[in-house]
Specification:
Number of helices: 2
Largest sheet: none
Strand content: under 5%
Shape: rod-shaped
Radius of gyration: 56 Å
Helix content: over 70%
Number of domains: 1
Number of strands: 0
Distance between the termini: 131 Å
Protein name: DEUP1 protein
Subcellular location: Cytoplasm
Structural class: mainly alpha
Main location: cytoplasm
Keywords: Coiled coil, Cytoplasm
Amino acid sequence: MEADFSEMRNELQSRDACWRRIQLECQQLHTELLKVREYKDMQEIQIQYQSSCVQLAKQLENKNAELLLLAQNQEHQREELHKIRSRLYREEQSHRSEQERMKTEISALTEELHQKEITIATIMAKASLLERQLKMELEIKDKLLAKQQLLDSQYRVIKSENTHLKKMV
């Protein structure tokens, strides 16, 4: 956009210089006309002078019309640029708020994951403790079962001896 403004500024300066040259040429033609009046027919030179000025005036009028169109186009481009900047600003704001929302959500999920990891670690520790306790209880029960089986076998032996002794008596 700045390049367009610079280009338009350069065009205006160029046209201004052209206008000055035209004015200078007009003055020079006028001076020539005065000089040539002494030597040549006055009407021919005057017609040429007027024709040149009319042409130059028409050229200047055309250039001014072009400049007007360029200025209108520039204003339209400024409006479009403003719309684009506004839309870009809204998009950036939307993107930032979405990023913030995602950061907050990620933070919450990370905290939740951390809490679940703590819970899992606690459960694993309790499970490990319960497993040891269960193993110890199984060992105790195995020992008690073995002791009971020994006692049962001793009881049968004693019962059988007792029965045998009763028969003998």
